[in-house]
Amino acid sequence: MALVPSPTANEGPLFAEVDMGADASAPTIRATVVQAATIFYDTPATLDKAERLLAEAASYGSQLVVFPEAFIGGYPRGSNFGVTIGNRTAKGKEEFRKYHAAAIDVPGPEVDRLAAMAGKYKVYLVMGVIERDGYTLYCTVLFFDSQGHYLGKHRKIMPTALERIIWGFGDGSTIPVFDTPIGKIGAAICWENRMPLLRTAMYAKGVEIYCAPTADSRDVWQASMTHIALEGGCFVLSANQFCRRKDYPPPPEYVFSGTEEDLLPDSVVCAGGSVIISPSGAVLAGPNYDGEALISADLDLGEIVRAKFDFDVVGHYSRPEILSLVVKDHPMSPVSFTSASGKAESSNK
């Protein structure tokens, strides 16, 4: 597994680091973003791969490890699930059945295993998954602490384009920011990072380590990540998969609609671009477009205070008498049941 190199006195894999003037009053933590591909339709094998990567990152001193969007369950790049307006094909429905089978329940045995992995390797873990809730799927991020506890989840509130035919929509009840000994950690997934009101809600919750699992490997993604770091005065950790055509099942089992005829097994279908950016907008590690990698940096949390001195978007740079935001952070249920006693019962899990 490749890492971004930087000179050190020790042998072995190296880390990109930036001297940000650390002092004893501001802790420094080591963070890693994982750039690697799912083993598609094989969740047990993907969990095994996740553990190997987590163990490797931990062996280099990482305290926080962030995996890409949909790492467990898979990002169905290139698939249209047989959907056109007014029609769904039998093959597309079967593809969804297999995709649904590869997703995980939250809570569930796979969540228990991820929690045990975080505890075993003593790392905070941020993991992109496809969550199965009954017959609906969600693109979700799970959070675990270094003691092996599941902390909670964020469901993507707005899937992009054709993602909306396979994933449900999260609500305001899963936009958490967790206050941990290594900083306040939250996440937004892929293009919901471009939603200014969602970002504002996270800033208001005090996010310091802003995780951005994604499937976007374009150069313009880097501009968004830099802007968020500067806007929020926070560290931004963006993790993307690096995938080749051979990381997906071969045709006709799996087809990249519109491009399949141009692809060879080694053709790159997602080039990565994972990156770590400081609150001042400095690129600490990445972006990496070369292959699967562990991309790491040391984060001086004192840099957050220095950045907020210039610009605190929900503090001294806000004008609440002019501009304000209301966040509905309770679960939204399609059905409520009222018992004879008058107490409402929600159908949500």
From TrEMBL:
It comes from Rehmannia glutinosa (Chinese foxglove). This is cyanoalanine nitrilase. It catalyses: 3-cyano-L-alanine + 2 H2O = L-aspartate + NH4(+). Belongs to the carbon-nitrogen hydrolase superfamily. Nitrilase family. Residues 29-301 form the CN hydrolase domain. The active site is at residue 69. InterPro entries: C-N_Hydrolase (IPR003010), C-N_Hydrolase_sf (IPR036526), Nitrilase/CN_hydratase_CS (IPR000132), Nitrilases_CHs (IPR044149). Its EC number is 3.5.5.4.
